[in-house]
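Chapter summary example.
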Amino acid sequence: MAVLATIIISFGLLLGVLAWPYSPVLSGVTFGIALAALAWGGWRDRSALKKVLVGTAVLCLLGILGWNFLLMPWANREASAETQFLNPDGAAGAALIVYHPGRSDLQTEAVTGFATGLVESGWRVTLATANATAPTDLAAYDLLVVGAQSYTWAPAQPVQDYLRRVGDLGGKPVVAILSGLGETGPATTVTADLIAELNGALLDIYHVWQMRPIDDLYGTDDPQAALRQTAVSLAATWGP
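The structure predicted for these 240 residues follows.
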């Protein structure tokens, strides 16, 4: 009983902390489950309660260490260098899209859709992964687009590192595309603050999620189609 209670409490506490910025309701439920498991596993005697508390502390510590030193470094590892030049003769404008693909296809689908929409609107597009080889001289571009998966309530580290390598954006118009499981609100604030700190002119931040519908934002749940139409709409209402 004590072992099962320890596992349930540890899981509830960790999930509750991680879920809080995204869903206070889910966080409250998991904290409630943890408290119920604590009462169930330790109500008989102090010896049982002590075992549950010590086990919970150990499991939570292991979970935090694993998250910070194993999972996050793996998720934030730079992708291999890849640069594509799309519609090189486009005359409507020039856009540089720099993104971190993450560990799913969601971010790649979103930025590919956005690039397709710009190309359809007559723009020439450079599409690059966020690493040391991505272009940092923005003089030839009218628009910078950055795309990142949200990890630990912030945009993927390779995208943050890229923006800091660029340094002063000099008032360059910027669009951000954030992807996540079901919420990107905290990463939105971090992204907006970083772009403002670097003197960029943020036009908008677009969101796509894996476990939450996006049709209320775009009229479709297909991230590639959604961001393609978003780019077409942007190009129709804004230009260099």
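To summarize the output: The two ends are 66 Å apart (CA to CA).
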